[in-house]
Each structure stands twice: as C-alpha cells, then as structure tokens.
Amino acid sequence: GEWYLRRRIMQGAMAELSERGVKFTMDELARRLGVSKRTLYENFASKEEIVGAILAESAAEIKMKRESIALNDGLCISEKFRQMLTVRSSLWTGISETVFMDVKRCMPDQWRTIENTLDELWLVVEILLQEGVRTGHFRPIFFPALRIMFRGAYYEFANYQFLAQHKVTMEEMTDHIINILLYGIARQDGNEQAGGNRNG
C-alpha cells in the first residue's frame, strides 16, 4: 500500500544519507529503490520533504520512548532522568553524527519542525523533574534555566568540530553533561553532602 511505499522511500533515503550525506539526489534514490523518479514525487514533493518526514518520525519515537521511561516503576528517578536524555531514535542507528549536523545546517526549515517537537519532548522531562522535586529526590531549581542550559549545550556541541576536537561522541558528551547536572561540581562528602541533604 501507499504507507509501505512511503516507508520504503524513507528507508532508502536513510541509506543514501548514510552513504552520501545530504547531497544525495532524487535520481540516486530512485535508482537505489528501482522505482521511477515520478513515483518518488507522487509520494514526496522533494528530498527535503523526505528528510523532514524522517525527522518527524524520529522525534515521535523519542517522545514515545521517553514516556515509557517515565512510566517505568523499576527505575529510580535519577536513572529515569539519565535515560530520558540519552534516548536516541532507532532510525538514525549507524548514521554518523556528521550527517545529522549537515541536515541541521543544510535543511533549516525541516530542522525547525524538529525544534518545535523538542520543546514538547522537554515537557516530558520537566514533569519528571517536578516529580523529583516534590518527592525530595531533586532540590528545587529554576526549570527555565535548566532548559536553556540543555538547549545551549546541544546547540554548541551539535557541530562536528567540537566533538572531534574533544574526541567524544554525542552520547558521551550527553552523558558528561547529565553527570554534572545530577551530581554537581561540589564534592559529595562532608559538609557539601550535609548541605545537599538539607535541601532535599
């Protein structure tokens, strides 16, 4: 059916992205799939629209995964927070971070729709944080500050040079940031610990 064909086109585009990056053409995609270019255009108006559909689906998947982590009673609240922020879409498995950065740079309109979805995704995290504050696991913080720290961090290291310069992957970088957020920079013993406990 139509859904299956659209899906196949998106998967083909992912393979093209993986091999050629954002510079792949509709001709190359049609050849890979063994369909006519007309068939591609009957399903998607442009290459950008295909990539936009892939991004939208990735975001929807991340949202679903985050919600299921939030509902997982087997995890402590700190672990939920860590897992929520390190969730990645299975669609992007095996595709290098450079390609991801190129999509962001070369297709700003498609990326903007993702940024709107990311705002929704953040709400899931914020609800968890509020629960953590209410139950005394986290100390009260100004949520907008945390949100802007995260956005700023992602914006900063969502460029390949930064990651290459520090010889870290996107996942490792995210993990470092979450560690600092969860455990702070003050030593976790002696007076600091007592102060921390007093605050929740």
The quaternary structure here is: single chain
Low-confidence stretches: 192-200
- The succession of helices and strands, N to C, reads HHHHHHHHHHH
Give the helix level as a range of percent: over 70%
Radius of gyration: 20 Å
Q: Which structural class do the helices and strands define?
A: mainly alpha
Q: How many β strands by DSSP?
A: 0
How many H/I helical runs? 11
Distance between the first and last residues' Cα:
55 Å
Strand content: under 5%
Largest sheet: none
Mean model confidence by pLDDT? 84
Shape: elongated
Kindly list the characteristics that best describe this protein.
mainly alpha, 11 helices, 200 residues
Summarize the structure.
The chain is mostly helical and 200 residues long. It is built from eleven helices and no strands. α5 packs antiparallel against α10 (170-183).
